[in-house]
Amino acid sequence: MGCSSCSTGKDGQPRGCKNNGTCGTDGCNKLTVFDWLSNMALPNGQKPFDCIEVRFKNSRKEFFRNTEGLTLSIGDVVATQAKSGHDVGIVTLTGELVKVQMKKKKVSFESKDLPKVYRKASQRDIDIWQKCRDKEEEIQKRSREIAIALKLEMKLSDVEFQGDGSKATFYYTAEDRVDFRQLIKDMAKAFNIRIEMRQIGYRQEAQRLGGIGSCGRELCCSTWLTDFRSVSTASARYQQLALNPQKLAGQCGKLKCCLNYELDMYLEALNGFPSQDTKLLTEKGVAFCQKTDIFKELLWFSYKNDPANWHTLHKDQVLEILEMNKANKKVASLEMYAADNMVQEEKMSFENVVGQDSLNRFDKPKHHHNKRRKKKKRPNNKKQVTKNG
Q1: Which of 122, 258, 274, 342 has the fewest beta carbons under 10 Å from its own?
Q2: What pairs with residue 301 in β-bridges?
Q3: What domains does the chain contain, in order, with CATH numbers?
């Protein structure tokens, strides 16, 4: 979803708002919330909710109390309270939906400790904020060089300036604890600002940086996913996926969050299936389960003495054989049941109604014309020979 400022330019190329993830109308932000109550008026006598949601760089959002009663709407740039000084952010949500978001994130809207909104940002505030944002990339590169010189095993992934330019927060990832006291001293001396170090996980790093997943779409964690649930290899086993770390891992290096999306459906479907360790007793021998297809409700079994040959059985057939085995009865063989499942595949005829050419039209040999020419030349040569003779 794009905003009106992301229209097409004169040369046909996308113009874009060039705000680098801080869209003014909140149309193409990360983790944006659609205000479906914006066109509805409040009942008579009810005052609007005095808290707003403000978005800062990347996915950081915080709630502030509008004590001054400012008339704010989505997209307004405001100056907010910070621990020291003030910060600058963009209003992403107002009204009753803010109360819903605060309940969802377990933030008490009755608390008196909520920070306040000072004012709408002036042009001077916006200029200072934009100037600090432009310096972030250069400072991030310089800080990485200082960390490498100190031989610290950490990765500085992002830098976020406060709106007034008095403080910078450095986000980093590391496997173990890092003693960065000397790093803070060197960076404070080099940049002349207050430094705050904040460690984040690898998934939070991917959420802040964004990117394109293997599915071809933007990362879920940077667009709509707000909570990170634990993902284990068991979810891949239930879905019968190959345990290949290169395919199961996301951009963050951890297991993909989308492995949990369809896991509940698979677990519900597996409730009616026999266990993977199921053994079938037949007069021909004991058979073990080799493979399961949840969608087609098929299972493949093979005999203990002949593991190479698999026999296809339906789920109901397997349950029927198990009931017979519980009654101390054995079936003759698996071939009796597998023969019923053999269906001849019908060849689908393709009708070329559009009139498209065949894909193998260029695969035809081109040497047929040369043979015809040779055949035509042979009788002429014979005539010449007879004349000379």
Answers
A1: 342
A2: 289, 311
A3: 1-37+47-120 (no CATH), 127-205 (3.30.300), 229-269 (no CATH), 279-340 (no CATH)
